[in-house]
Here is the input.
Amino acid sequence: MKFKALLLALSVTSAFSFAQEKVKYSKEQIKKMETYLFNEGFNIPSPKKISTIIMKDGTVNKGYCSKVDSKKGQIYEIAIKDSATKKQMTFNAENVSEMYIYPSNAEKIAKVGKYFGNIRNFGTKKLTKNTTGENIHFVNQTVSLKNKKDDKEFLMQLINPEFSDIISVYHDPRAKETGGFSIGGSPQLGGGVIKSYYVKKGDKVMWLHKDDFEDNYDFLFGDNAEFMKKYPKKSVEWDYFSFLVNEYTEMSNG
Here is the structure.
């Protein structure tokens, strides 16, 4: 009897703790949390606009990007034609600190088509991010691709430049998306959520997949008690990731 009573007490305690941890959000709150706040990830630079490459020694090079070589989707070598001298120059990503390039028109057009191909995008993403006329920012980072390969330096696109002072999120060129369905060639319903990013907090850079989100939640946000109370990991979804990073940054910065 004592054993059964103990089990019952533990069950009640666990249920109470779980109830305390769960937060129920309104439809308006969920809609806000599902809004995609990261910049669009681009993989192909424009050869018609001047790119800027900043070396680790501070040297600045400007020119038209003529070639980008990638490995596992990540850039490791860039070639540009100097905008003044027309000299062809090639740079290894390991020697580059930052890079600013413009996305190609062809890739922007393809992304616009993809945007209209999924009904979910209309309520969660801004079309202007697919057609941006601004340059995109790449930063040298030492990473293990998919947390499996040896650490190596790559130029990775920062996709949350406006709120990256605590957690930096980088585009994963090989990321897959959640699946949806369409009927008779109509726009897709559901799906379209990016499954992985590269994420940096402090000195740690990791490949973060949606399946590992809950396991890494405390590392990402656990040092802010107010945030954890408002957005406990049992109450949120991977779909809210960009919102959560932005909200955590704002709450941490006061």
Observations:
- Confidence is low (pLDDT under 50) at residues 1-20.
- The longest helix spans residues 2-21.
- The helical segments are 2-21, 27-34, 105-116, 119-124, 213-221, 225-230, 241-252.
- The two ends are 52 Å apart (CA to CA).
